[in-house]
# Entry
Amino acid sequence: MKTLLKILGVIILLVVVYAVIAMLAFSKNYHFEKSVVINAPTEKVWQHVGSLKEYNVWDPFSKADKDIVITYSGTGDKVGDSYHWKGNDKVGEGEQSITEIVPNDKLVTQLHFIKPFEGNAVAKFVLTPEGNGTKVTWSIDNELNTVMKIMKPMMDMNMKTMFDQGLGDLKKISEK
# Structure
């Protein structure tokens, strides 16, 4: 019994030490990005990236809830256009609006998360010609609160999974 208590004590101590180190060492500025090269011209890839409505066709976050409710404001392809989503606990609720658009080159959006956590982020899609194809770089930037700093490694794993899935689906539909 003493050995079990010692092991539990060491585990708890390690968790506390990790949490303190994470709160002090991890930056509050969070950046994550992934890229993929798609065997299609930039103009064809842009059809699926340059519109919020088309983005939601391959966006893995929207697909996480088959009953998600999405309400659009505008046509989805101009500065100021936005959409509001409301889904299950995994998807939450929030809004995304276009803040910058350069056709066939870049789309920048502002994300406002309402549930399960209040927060803001900036997402970018940058398209770059690469050989006969197009390199798509998807990034997200936001500010982490103290609790989120502790969860950063889990966030990185989740973002990698979701970005890989989304860019993979974008590649599939763009290369048709």
Observations:
- The helical segments are 2-25, 42-49, 52-58, 60-63, 146-150, 152-174.
- The longest strand covers residues 119-130.
- The chain is about 40% helix and 35% strand.
